[in-house]
Design a protein that fits this description.
The chain has about 400 residues and is α+β, with helices and mostly antiparallel strands. The protein has eleven helices and seven strands. The protein is globular, with a radius of gyration of 21 Å. The chain starts with 10 loop residues before the first helix and ends in a 7-residue tail after the last helix.
Length: about 400
């Protein structure tokens, strides 16, 4: 299935797409389903992608990265997804955590973490969601209090991806403002083996190599340098990580949608029930064409968001990243649904590898923020309408 290429992408970006697509094809959906079935992790693909410089393409060159930005990193994830083998931890480790540390971390934190995040030898998870504070980050109750020179973290997090393979988790907590007494958000690097850092795997219907965990932080003691950035700029630092998260989630959804659509188009070209292949019938062809259009439009907004973010326009990037994530989530679900429907009963067989995407495609609608919360954001921030909450 062809995908439109225009002058919106540089020759370097087009070359990156082709190279990552070639890597993805060497692994593909069969590799991913085997990994999931055997309860393993995507270590081989992760290691090879890192060796080729793809995992750290957005991180600064002086710390072992590629010196690019979200434009490049989103291309990597999209193309791996389009080949059927997306790496979910790319959203978390290099995109969120790597970006936050690169922008706001101390020199010591950058030297400690960025080279490893870039070459794949270190992985970092991200903990923000809580049982009673889903989309309302103002209700986060994980707190960090000073004890001498240390910080002590107490609280719970849920739906934290890949904690079992992550060397540390970037935790969103809250500290008390000494002047106002109000709680303000701050980010802390908590090593996996820190005393009091407990994890419980959540039993998910979603089948993926990356497992989901609940974290229980029971007086986790961290040194002073576990705090990332300025204690008084936690909100700015938090959103600096959330915009890349939304851009990469869009890439995840677009890649998955492209994979499903590619399988459906291939099937529709060759499946013959009457005298012509079923793809000749408009009832089959038109929905697939519409799904293709939606995916292409989603990519345009993702490219806009990535460019604004890479240029340092956090406000503009926030609006575009939310729109891109919304559009990609909708396009992904529709593409997967139409792909399964095109194959009929075959769409539900393990052989064609589409049925599992019915559940997986919902992720782009739900996480890291629901489509309804994005509509709230757009209605308030873009349209200037009053809040309902």
């Amino acid at each position: 299935m062809s995908t439109a290429r225009t002058a919106l992408e540089t020759e370097e970006h087009q070359a990156l797409r082709a190279a990552v697509a070639a890597l993805g094809e060497r692994y593909g959906r069969d590799y991913m389903t085997t990994v999931i079935r055997e309860g393993k992790h995507t270590d081989e693909l992760w290691t090879e992608a890192a060796k080729l410089g793809y995992l750290g393409v957005n991180l600064p060159e002086e710390y072992g990265g590629g010196g690019g930005g979200m434009a490049e990193l989103s291309i990597v994830l999209e193309e791996l997804g389009a080949a059927g083998s997306p790496l979910l931890m790319m959203i978390v480790s290099p995109a969120i955590c790597g970006t936050v540390i690169a922008r706001f971390g101390t020199e010591e934190q950058k030297r400690t973490w960025l080279p490893g995040l870039a070459d794949g030898s270190l992985t970092m998870a991200f903990g923000i969601t809580e049982p009673d504070a889903g989309s309302n980050s103002h209700r986060i109750t994980t707190t960090a209090r000073r004890d001498g020179d240390d910080w002590v973290l107490t609280g719970r997090k849920v739906f934290v991806s890949g904690v079992d393979i992550a060397d540390a988790t970037l935790i969103v907590g809250r500290t008390e403002d000494a002047r106002s007494g109000k709680l303000k958000p701050c980010l802390f690097i908590a090593p996996r083996e820190a005393p009091g850092f407990g994890r419980n795997q959540i039993d998910m219907e979603l089948h993926a190599p990356e497992k989901q965990f609940e974290l229980v932080l029971d007086d986790v003691r961290l040194p002073a340098d576990a705090l990332v950035g300025d204690e008084d700029a936690g909100l700015l630092q938090l959103f600096a990580g959330l915009n890349p998260e939304r851009i990469m989630t869009a890439a995840f959804g677009i890649g998955m949608g492209r994979f499903a659509l590619g399988r459906a188009v291939e099937y529709a070209r060759t499946r013959q029930v009457w005298k012509d292949p079923i793809g000749a019938h408009q009832a089959i062809a038109h929905p697939l064409a519409a799904a293709h259009i939606d995916l292409e439009l989603s990519r345009l907004m993702m490219q806009k968001a990535a460019r604004l973010y890479d240029e340092g326009d956090d406000i503009g990037a926030g609006e575009a990243a939310n729109m891109a994530k919304y559009a990609a989530g909708e396009a992904c679900v529709k593409a997967v649904d139409q792909a399964v429907h095109t194959l009929g009963g075959n769409g539900l067989t393990r052989e064609y590898g589409l049925a599992s995407l019915i559940t997986a495609s919902r992720v782009a609608r739900i996480a890291p923020v629901s489509r309804e919360m994005i509509l709230n954001y757009v209605s308030h921030q873009s349209l200037g309408l009053p809040k309902s909450y």
